[in-house]
Amino acid sequence: MHNPTIRHAAGFFLSLVAAMLWGVLPIALKELLAGMDAITIVWYRFFVAGIVLLVWLGMRRNLPSLFTQNTQTKWFLVLAATGLVINYFLFSYSLNFVNGETSEAVIQLTTLFLILGGVFVYREPFFALQKIGTVLIMLGLLLFFNDRLSELTNLENRETIGVIVVIFAAITWTVYALLQKQLLVKFSSVQILFMIYMFSIVVLLPFISPLSLFELTQMQFYLLLFCCVNTIVAYGCFAEALNCWDASKVSAVLALAPLFTIGSLKLVVFFQPDYAFSDRLSMLSLFGAFLLVVGSVLTALMPVFQQHRINKRAALVDSD
To answer: What pTM was computed for the model?
Structure first.
């Protein structure tokens, strides 16, 4: 795959598959929560993904070694693993209170939090275009909840609880992402995920109800299987997309995930009008979701625009 055109196409396709899988994931989780608690779902997802990565890395003789790492790296890994496992749990748990459209819209705050984390932790610049993207994200959220804003001020409201849980899920994912930037100096992204999965399998073990697997209906079992496969394939596509394409472009495509959530639920409601787990968004809320995506895409693509500006200046200097 040395042809740049092919690599761009592959990067886009793999990113789109990951966005689609992450977009439909909350729909499956919402249904599955009727038969299994959130923490057990997360454990099974990590267990299956961890076994697959163990076999994959073992066959390639690329299993990571922690014994040669310094104490700081080990602590970074523990904190990153803690951040990701809490993120998985909170996102799944939030679906006890909100529907897929809402959870996927609010989780877009990870884009904003990651930018702010980069600014305050790594002293990265905060460009004008990113500020515009931030405004669009906040405006998009306001429009998305335009007909529910008064309800969200009530802390006893179930939807308010769900939104707060998703916000904390976004914060914990940001912690994981910021720490992964440091860990990538020592490990590959696949090795990091493998160690996080192994850590999480052990840590979550005392809190799960594994026998609830045998109480699932056939449909719920298939949904659990889908969630497990989703974890492997989506992150696999994401990792491979990064090998083919710029990280900023991959992130921009991943920002389309809420559109897949909304579109999938619109399709479900079209064929099943009585379907309970849909917010049945108004046109103004849909426009808010669109602004959310645009804001996320703009902030994600900022490195591309910045590199283009640098290349343009360099070309002007060379021509002089």
So the answer is: 0.88
What per-residue string of b and e applies to 9-43 under the rule 16 or more CB within 10 Å gives b? ebbbebbbbbbbbbbbbbbbbbebbebbbbbbbbb
Task: Grade residue 42 by pLDDT with cuts at 50, 70 and 90.
Answer: very high
Is the model's pLDDT at 1 over the cut of 50?
no
pLDDT digits (tens, 9 = 90+) for 221-241: 999 999 999 999 998 888 788
Task: Give strand ranges (E) for 16-117.
Answer: none
3-state secondary structure of 57: helix
In terms of pLDDT, which residue wins out, 309 or 255?
255
> Tens digits of per-residue pLDDT, 268-292?
999 999 998 898 889 999 999 999 9
| AA identity, residue 71 | T
Mean pLDDT of 95-110: 93
**pLDDT at position 7:** 76
Q: How far is CA 256 from CA 24, 107, 119, 140, 202, in A?
A: 12, 12, 24, 14, 33
**Residue 311 CB partners (closer than 8 Å, separation 6+):** none
CA angle 123, 126, 131 (to 5 degrees): 150
Q: On the CB side of 115, how many CA atoms lie within 13 Å of its CA?
A: 27
The residue behind tokens 């496992």 is 85
Q: Domains of the chain: which residue ranges?
A: 4-319
Give the integer Cα–Cα distance in Å for 204 and 232: 19
Cα atoms in the 13 Å half-sphere on the side-chain side of 206: 1
Which amino acid, residue 80? A
